[in-house]
Amino acid sequence: MYNQKFNLIVFGALSLLSLQSIASNNQTNLKDTTFKSDGNPIIKHKYTADPAAIVYKDKVYIYTGNDVAPVGKNSYVMHDWLCFSSSDLVNWTEHPIPLRAADFSWAKDDAWASQVIERNGKFYWYVSVSHGTIHGKSIGVAVSDSPTGPFKDARGSAIITNDMTKAASISWDDIDPTVIIDDQGQAYLFWGNTACYYAKLKPNMIELDGPINTVKLPHFTEAPWIHKHNDWYYLSYAYEFPEKIAYAMSKSITGPWAYKGIINEIAGNSNTNHQAIIDFKGKSYFIYHNGALAADAGSFHRSVCIDELFYNKDGTIKRIIMTSEGVKPVK
Ligand code: FUB
Asked: Best substitution site from 79, 112, 115, 221 to test ligand 1's pocket, by max atoms within 8 Å of Cβ?
């Protein structure tokens, strides 16, 4: 009897503590806060997924989704996006929540994967959200004068909706935007799930400039990320399901793309993976998520990690070695 009572009290106290910690993790930060990462995952006070990254004025900015599914719920619950910055990849500043799915009046929640790009001093944030009135997922774009926001809906409508794409017969093929501006100043938007789409963007960055095309990639699932290193373009993506990361290379953004193989194996305890690849202060980095943070971590409670990425002399990418230690501070 005594034991039963004692157990109940301990269970009650622990439940309260864990609820309090989830609640405090979900509180809106109203000002910048700082923390130091001690290896992978780099952010331990909340769940972060689908990283995108930019380098701007000697800092890395990482934009992530925020997994807040109640424990035991096996689906994504994601309402807003987060922003973290660092000059050395170890000492981080978390900025106040810069953008929420609710900031797009036409959208119906689901703050899925996204990417930010800078053009002429403005920052454009392409995001996946569920559309409120057009069946399926869609892509919106927000704009800000600062990489840390606040961002606001740049169009008042989606730039991509499910009725605009036909190559996949699912309603969630219009997700996971990635964006690049080529050396001639032409911007391209890539995105997709099971079909990989791309289209040119007008210089204003908020309208398409031509037709929607598709790229054929072996076992393409989702999470395209386009980047340039030296004189090669790279299109990396989530391969099969559960997801590994594979990539293709081309001398031109519009292809032809040569498939080069898998660079990252399934990341621990998560059936999705989602990568960003950047060069920063003389090194290259692979930023991704896994489900390895805590007892209730997993496919719907993911966490961002960073490891080094190495190129071969011919431009191909070596396999990523995922580590617990993460990266050393960059000078
Ligand atoms: O986080 C929701 C979805 O899971 C993303 O849009 C996909 O890339 C996958 O990571």
From this structure: 112
In this structure, the residues whose C-beta lies within 6 A of any atom of ligand 1 are 49-50, 65, 76, 112-113, 128, 175-176, 222-223, 272, 274
CA 71 to ligand 1 center in whole angstroms = 18
Q: What is the pLDDT of residue 28?
A: 61
Atom of ligand 1 nearest to the CA of 223: 8
Cis bond leading into 224, ω under 30°? Answer: no
Alpha helices in the chain (DSSP H): 2-26
pLDDT in tens, 42-86: 999 999 999 999 999 999 999 999 999 999 999 999 999 999 999
DSSP labels for 156-191? SS-SEEGGG--SS-STT-S---EEEE-TTS-EEEEE
Calculate the alpha carbon distances from 24 to 48, 53, 75 in Å: 15, 26, 21
| CA 224 to centroid of ligand 1, rounded, Å | 11
